[in-house]
Structures are given as C-alpha cells and as structure tokens.
Automatic annotation (TrEMBL):
Species this chain originates from: Vannielia litorea
Region (Disordered): 1-24
Protein name, as recorded: HNH endonuclease
Amino acid sequence: MDDMPPQCPLCHRPIPPDVPQSRHHLVPRLRGGKGGETVLLHHICHKEIHATLTETELARDYATPEALRAHPRLARFIAWVAKRPPEFNPKTAGPRRRR
C-alpha cells in the first residue's frame, strides 16, 4: 500500500515530498497567529498568497483555505496552476500586488 502525498488546500494538487513546499499560518504571526494553525502548501501557492494579500487582509478576511480560494486573483491563479504538474515551480516571480 503506497501512501498518498498531502494535498495543497489552495490548488488541491498533491504535494510530493520532493517538491518545494512551505507552511502557511492561516492568521499571520504578526497579527496574532503565532502558534496558530498552519497548512502545508506548494511553495508557489504560498508565494502567490503573500504577493496578493497583506498581513492585515489575511488576518481579517482570509484566514481559511476556503476564503483564500474565493479571492478573485487567487481564484485565477488556482485555475492557471491547476493545469500544471505538482512539481511546477517557475524561476521568475510574478507581479506583486497593486495598491
């Protein structure tokens, strides 16, 4: 019996052990989430969350994977990245959030 890799709660793709991955604090540490719940994400998904939302926005309105998936920019990113293999990790960064 082979073990299934964990699934990214943002894009729902598997996270094999050999791909870049990171833990995301659902409530940012600087906004009261130190020691709080974390989720394992693909590194590319984690980077997109922080490129899209401020720490305050994350703490106030986006403290669950469901809320993150509902954000318009993240929803477009998820639709795009879902077509890529789990090990996909581009070498260049995308555009930062607009103010």
